[in-house]
Every structure is written in C-alpha cells, then in structure tokens.
Amino acid sequence: MSTLVVGSGFVGTGIARRLVAAGDAVTLVSRGRPADPPEEYGARWAALDATDARACGRLVARLRPRRIVLVHGPSDVTWCEAHPAEAELAHSSVAAAFAGLGGRARVVMISTDNVFDGTSPRNTEATSVSPANAYGRAKHRAEQVLLARAADALALRVSLVYGHEPADAGKWLNYFAACAHRLRAGERVEAPDDQWTTPVHVEDVAEVVAALLSCPTPLPPVLHLGGPDRVSRAEWATVIARSLGLPAALVVPVPKAGSRYASRPRNACLAGDLLGTLPATRDIPIRGVVEGAHDLTAVFASS
Ligand SMILES: NC(=O)c1ccc[n+]([C@@H]2O[C@H](COP(=O)([O-])OP(=O)(O)OC[C@H]3O[C@@H](n4cnc5c(N)ncnc54)[C@H](OP(=O)(O)O)[C@@H]3O)[C@@H](O)[C@H]2O)c1
C-alpha cells in the first residue's frame, strides 16, 4: 500500500512511522528536509511545496498513492494570527490541490480544535463551527475545500498532540516537549490556568489515522479525536513535572491573556463521540495525560 504524507513535521513523522511499521510504502514531502531522517525508519522523502498545484500533480502521477494524509503547516497559531491571509491561502490551496488529485485515494486531513470558539467545554462532531482565530479559520476553510471537492476524504480534527521532540529540533516544540525540556533544565514554566485542552499522544493519533486509512467502508466527513482528560495547561505542566520527578513548584499558573496562548480558544477540547462508535476506531485506547506522561518519562529522561 503506498501512502503520501504531506508534511514531515511532528505529527506527519509520527503517522509515517506507524504506517511504515504496518508495512506501508510511505513517502513524506515538505519543502525542507525533515530533521528526523525518514530513511532511518523506512520511509522516503521528496521535496515539495504543496501550495504548487502543478508540482503536486507531477508527484501524484509518479507515486500513484492509494492514501494521502494532509498534515502540513503552517501550524504555528501565533504566526497564523500575524499572517492570516497567507495562512488561509496555504491551507486552502493545498487542500484544493489534493482534493482534485486524490482519484481513488482516500485523503485524510489533520484539522484542529481551533475551529471552535472555546465557549463550550466539550466540542463534538455536531457542535457548530466558529473559529477562534486565524489558524482555525484557515483550517476550517481547508476542510470545506477538501470535503466539497474530493471523492473520498475526511477531516480528522485533533486536539493538542504531544510526544517526544528533541530540545534542539530547531522549531517551536509541542507543549509537552517544551515543558519537559524546560523543567529538566530547572527553568520555571509559566502555564495558563484558564485554557483547557484534551491532549492526545502522537502515537494514538497515528493509530487512529492508520485505522481510518485502512477502513474499507465510507467514513463520515468530519471526526474528532481528543484525549480522555480535560486539563488546563497549568494542570498538565504539573503532571509533566511530577512524571519526571521534578518540583511542581516550577510550574507558575498565569492567565492566558498576555501569554503566547492569548489567541487560543478557552476550551480547545474535542470529544470523539462519532469516532468512538465506528468499528474501525472504537476499540483503539486513547491515553490519558498521566499514562501518556508516564510513557514518555524514559525518553525525556535520556534526551
Ligand atoms: N501539533 C498539534 O498539536 C496539532 C493538532 C491538531 C492539528 N494539527 C495539524 O497538523 C499539521 C501538522 O502539525 P505539526 O505539529 O506536525 O506541524 P510541524 O511540526 O510544524 O510540521 C509542519 C510540516 O509541514 C511542512 N510544510 C509547511 N508548509 C508546507 C508546504 N507549503 N508544502 C509542503 N510541506 C509544508 C513543514 O516543512 P517545511 O516548512 O520544510 O515545508 C513541516 O514538515 C498542521 O496542519 C496542524 O494544523 C496539529
């Protein structure tokens, strides 16, 4: 089975690793070579600016993928807030390019909880969309473009994803990794106590994506994936400190206003009501934050 993963960053790499382990022939694409060399875990990489529709067409004609995962940037919420037009153009042009090229391929786009305004502590697949910020608007527009034009596509809205990334990855790290490295260095971590998320381990995201790609029956156009725990960033940073055996006092609760997280929805929380009923995904266990932190302790302790 050949799979094209558009975006070779944190989430794309996690998905690619899981698909390779299942025997897929995986090609990741991005503009720059990923820090985590795909050849080392059995995938291939090709250079592609996915906003270039012609280049996407040439690549798809060459690879003829049976499955396509859209998991490209821009992913930085703060950057998108400062560059809303560029963010929307990037996400919707890539969605448009692959919606028309999928052919017989299933296309899964990784979307976000930022398509909700954060007023509800629980956002299901039935909750009305009302993007919280420019990033949420760009991702929602891309969902609409993809779902309107592709024959077999779905948007998987995923809550805050976490897992291991090295301190020197040269990019803004996922929240868990950023907290873990700072706490291990003895630094204080200012963490909002008024912004809640339902964090989900990157390996659990990859497991769900693999199941959705393999599912032989048609799927709903929109699915939600969140972890079972709703935690504030301050609560979560405290869980991370405790799991690493570090003083919880290093975590300093602050309001999200004035922080890097100011434009994030108050509740960036997803409930996968529909995902939990599908035969393909209902038995996949999704880790809570304590179990997820426990599972990551060894790799952070040695990095
Ligand atoms: N991380 C999360 O918590 C989370 C949660 C929900 C949804 N998502 C979604 O998942 C996607 C990826 O997130 P991430 O955390 O993995 O981000 P990331 O680590 O920043 O990776 C983004 C990847 O996209 C590539 N990319 C950016 N523009 C591109 C272009 N024009 N053509 C081809 N590749 C391009 C980047 O490489 P180059 O810059 O070298 O091209 C990079 O490999 C985003 O769309 C985000 O909305 C993430």
Describe the structure.
The chain has 303 residues and is an alpha/beta fold. It has a domain at 2-163 and 201-227: Rossmann fold, CATH 3.40.50.720. Helices cover 36% and strands 18% of the residues. It has nine helices and 14 strands. It has helices at 10-21, 53-63, 77-82, 84-101, 134-149, 175-184, 202-214, 233-243, 289-301, and strands at residues 2-6, 25-30, 44-47, 67-70, 106-112, 153-158, 161-162, 189-192, 196-197, 200-201, 222-225, 231-232, 251-254, 267-268. The strands form four sheets. It has a seven-stranded parallel β-sheet, with helices on both faces. α5 (134-149) links the parallel β5 (106-112) and β6 (153-158). α4 runs parallel beside α5 (134-149). It is globular and about 55 Å long. The structure holds NADP nicotinamide-adenine-dinucleotide phosphate. Residues 7-12, 29-32, 34, 48-51, 71-73, 75, 90, 110, 112, 139, 158, 160-161, 174 line the site of NADP nicotinamide-adenine-dinucleotide phosphate.
Low-confidence stretches: none
Overall number of strands? 14
DSSP strand content: 15-25%
Query: Nearest-angstrom radius of gyration?
Result: 18 Å
- Number of helical regions: 9
Mind describing the biggest β-sheet? 7 strands, parallel
| CATH architecture classification name of the domain at 2-163 and 201-227 | 3-Layer(aba) Sandwich
Examine the coordinates and then state which fold CATH places here, giving the name of the CATH topology of the domain at 2-163 and 201-227: Rossmann fold
Mean pLDDT: 96
